[in-house]
Specification:
mainly alpha; 0% strand
């Protein structure tokens, strides 16, 4: 990539474009990246310099052009007012590590199922059942995060569709 934009060095959109430039030199210049993403060059610069927030459709365009589906997840978890309260940011590791995380989070699924059945059989979550119910929710969140990370890995590395 050409010169390094020191002001944008920790911006996730700049870092994504820099990563994409490793395999596609078109992304080495902001001008060509702007053309390929359909985002105005000046606006792309301002996004990468953190002076403006991107629109969701711009994040989607960058994610697709740079082959960085994790940009959408990060945008939703960090910047979207609704997503910040409901989306967990995930990290894409290597496939073998992700597979082990998914399998690890699923290892207690039978006991979770049994606990959920026991809690829900009377249709009421009693005060004494709340800690067990919270444990179930925490386990389900962990399963969800690991599954999302694996899905993003597949989208990025084997071009699996959403």
């Amino acid at each position: 990539m050409g010169k390094k934009a020191t002001k944008a060095a920790d911006n996730m959109y700049y870092l994504a474009r820099s990563e994409a430039a490793r395999t596609n030199s078109d992304f080495s210049s902001r001008e060509k990246a702007a053309e390929l993403t359909g985002i105005d060059r000046t606006r792309l610069a301002r996004i990468e310099l953190d002076t403006i927030a991107p629109y969701p459709e711009e994040v989607k365009a960058m994610a697709e052009a740079y082959n960085m589906p994790e940009l959408c997840n990060s945008y939703c978890a960090r910047e979207c007012p609704i997503g910040r309260t409901s989306v967990s940011e995930v990290t894409i590791d290597d496939f073998d590590r992700l597979a082990l995380k998914v399998l690890g989070s699923l290892k207690d699924i039978d006991s979770l199922r049994a606990s959920l059945i026991a809690i829900s059989e009377d249709g009421v979550i009693e005060e004494k059942e709340r800690p067990a119910f919270q444990d179930i929710l925490d386990s389900l969140q962990k399963i969800s995060n690991n599954a999302n990370a694996l899905r993003l890995w597949a989208m990025k590395n084997i071009r699996l569709k959403q």
